[in-house]
Design goal:
alpha+beta; two-stranded antiparallel ribbon; 165 residues; flat
Length: 165
């Protein structure tokens, strides 16, 4: 194994680790990244996370959602097990739905400095209302900044089929 590749793999500590500890509080430090082997190509990576849980900051009641994370990587990519543990760390975290989505997006931008990213939470109803916050970001001064603006303005033009809530 080449030196650079071994060095990169040594930085990934969670994947394959049988002694995984699940964080009990918000833990952005568990996020890990690895090198994108195709940095010259634009492509999407999408995560569907159907078991997201956080707490209402006022009542302490649990909120449940499916989180969709899509990004166009640049040099770094997020390692999926670390993302799973990171999202799990919201289980005891009290924040409004909109705040949780923006925190997740900001932490992933800090980790990867992707070209483009969007985070969409589809929360199950509580009190008869579901909340589905969407946020995105494109690297300033690039076509991805324009893409973010366009997708934000057009992200919810089509009625969705709601069959899971």
């Amino acid at each position: 194994m080449e030196g650079r590749q071994k060095e990169e793999l040594d930085r990934i500590t969670l994947l394959g680790n049988q002694g995984t500890k699940y964080p009990s509080h918000y833990a952005p430090e568990v996020l890990e990244s690895f090198d994108n082997k195709h940095p010259g190509r634009d492509y999407f990576v999408k995560f569907n996370c159907p078991e997201f849980t956080s707490l209402c900051p006022i009542t302490g009641q649990p909120d449940f959602a499916t989180i969709y994370i899509s990004y166009i990587p640049d040099v770094k990519m997020v390692e999926s097990k670390s993302l799973k543990l990171y999202l799990f760390s919201f289980r005891n975290h009290g924040d409004f739905h909109e705040d949780c989505m923006n925190i997740i997006m900001n932490d992933l931008i800090k980790l990867m400095d992707s070209r483009y990213i969007e985070v969409w939470g589809k929360f199950t109803p509580r009190g008869g209302i579901s909340i589905d916050p969407y946020c995105n970001w494109g690297r300033p001064g690039t076509k991805f900044e324009e893409m973010a603006s366009y997708r934000l303005m057009n992200h919810d033009l089509y009625l969705e089929k709601v069959d899971n809530r």
